[in-house]
Structures
1.
Amino acid sequence: ITQNNTYALSLFANPSWNVSYGTQVNVTGSGCPSQLSCSLYRNNTGVVSNGVNATLGAGIYNYTYNTTGNANYSAKSISNILTIDKNNGACSILFNETSPIVYSKLFLAWTNCNSAFTLYRNGIVISNNSIQNLGAGTYNFSVIRNDSQNYTNLVDEQNFVINKATPSLTFLANGGTLNLSLA
């Protein structure tokens, strides 16, 4: 009697073997005959649950689905590489007003980053979602992500312009409110 060597193990990753950080991945091994015990390993460091959603950090992961076989079935193994790329999703500077505005008008500056970041105005750190009360001029706002393990250090930079106010003067002669003539 010879061992059964005709069965085939399969290994699948849903949604795929290459995703961006933050995406849940479900790695599933299948094809194991009921008379055998098959195990799923990640980076050969221990058994992981078969068919369970996982969110992993950016990196490369070696998945192996295998069995040592038994008296009736030969040992089998299948491997594949899961690559999780750094997330380069949106990290933008936002304002509640459209530049340019006129002096004395307040505005908010914030960012929509979904990771650690630092927000700057003219190279000085400012608080996220902060009220800006600035004089006339052009101001440079920039954001840099601080988490380089799972995110790209994406930088967004925008200028915001505040124009001088145009004064409006009204002459009121003798305390009147109409255009009065002086003789």
2.
Amino acid sequence: WAQNGGYVSNANDQAIKINSKADLDKYMAELNTYAQQLVNNVRDQFGTSQVQVSNGSKQVVQQIGNALTDENWNSLNGHDMNVDRNVAQANGLSQLSDQDMNVVMDKVLSKSWNLSLDDFKKALYESMQNYLFNGVEWNHATSVAGTRLGAKGKDVWMGLGWSFFTPTAETNQGVPVKD
């Protein structure tokens, strides 16, 4: 990743403004393709099978995102195994494997998000880099690389979804939250 020079911004993506959930929804297909390319570039280096994106995989992860938003789930709490299990069962799956790796946008969203498509792609890139090289995300790193024992040689499907977390006084260490 260092040899590639890090994330390279794209002027066209910088010009595309995302200021609402509806705006974000318009670009989810492109973000899914970008994330798939990032993962598959890593997998190429390991000689492992490519990940695929389907309408079904995108639907499953957005269902997870919707449930996490409904629960106001703080990703700092880790995986919400109940949500993962319930969404898997609702979609006829026995389980979800390597689910919900979080990409955290360190942004305070207001009525005007003031984000670009480039901001989202950069967040995906930096999260992927973090999973691979921070030294503590071993399960995520081996999942991205396709080297986990249970996933070797099997078809792997992925998708992106989004969820929103609104801090409360309880989750914000007692600091009052205005909005």
